[in-house]
Amino acid sequence: MDSSLLAITGMSFVLSFIFALGGVGSALVLIPAITWLGLPFAQARSIGLFVNTVSMMGATWSNFRQKRLDYRLGLPIIIASIILAPIGAWVGIHVPTKYVMYAFVTFLSFSGLMILFFNGSKFKDQYREDRPVTGPLLTGIGSGFLSGLLGVGGGGLISPLMIVQGFNPKKVAMVTAFAVPFSSFTAFLAYATMGSVSWKILLFAGAAAWAGGYLGTIVMQKNMRPAAVRKLLGGMLILLAGRMIQKMLL
């Protein structure tokens, strides 16, 4: 196993574990880390999408075994994101890389700030228990397109938008983990048909990501305080966005 493959495999496990603590995929951090190892941005996005798929499948399997999933709430998100993710991937391949990078850094900063500073406590003790279609459907449209365009899975958009709509953050984390594999995998297939895939890397990174996502979800459900998770993930994203901006300006 060469050094870059070993590094990507290790990062896939560690980052999938950490980000599963918040119910989101790790591609937001994994993609820039892979590009810093010298891989092309398009290939990094395909790896990020595949890692998101398997890590969130691991998280969802854990939720499924504990009978925590709300399938009906997640279905509108899944249906919309499956349709829009390949469109986003096609746009991402044909738009100049520097513009996609600008969009990536913007989304990275948005996700970090929302995780750190958005306060869903105003909904406490009155979380919605209904299962609407329109709000989750629009959420799926936006997250699906961004998933394909940026290779990030869309969890960083699904979570804050669903919390803003008044749903319990713990339920949102599970619904996000349920929805992300679908948009990620359809976007990944679009990149694969356009030739931006390294199957050897996917095999090792995928296995590591599944294990990390599964274990991270177990730890999140049993041992983690939500505030601690938010500070950890949000801080990581903001620091990474700053580092990317620095590299783009130099």
What does this structure look like?
This protein has helices at residues 3-20, 27-36, 41-65, 71-94, 97-117, 134-150, 155-164, 169-193, 199-223, 226-249. It is mainly α. It starts with a helix and ends with a helix. The longest helix is centred in the first third of the chain and has 25 residues, at 41-65. Helix 1 (3-20) packs parallel to helix 9 (199-223), helix 3 (41-65) packs across helix 9 (199-223) and helix 6 (134-150) runs antiparallel to helix 7 (155-164).
Secondary structure topology:
Elements: H1 3-20, H2 27-36, H3 41-65, H4 71-94, H5 97-117, H6 134-150, H7 155-164, H8 169-193, H9 199-223, H10 226-249
Notable characteristics:
single chain; mainly alpha; 10 helices; 0% strand
> Residue-averaged pLDDT, rounded?
80
Main pleated sheet: none
Gyration radius, to the nearest Å? 17 Å
**Secondary-structure-derived class:** mainly alpha
Binned strand content: under 5%
Count the helices. How many?
Answer: 10
Order of helices and strands: HHHHHHHHHH
Q: What is the β-strand count?
A: 0
Quick take:
This protein has about 250 residues and is mostly helical.
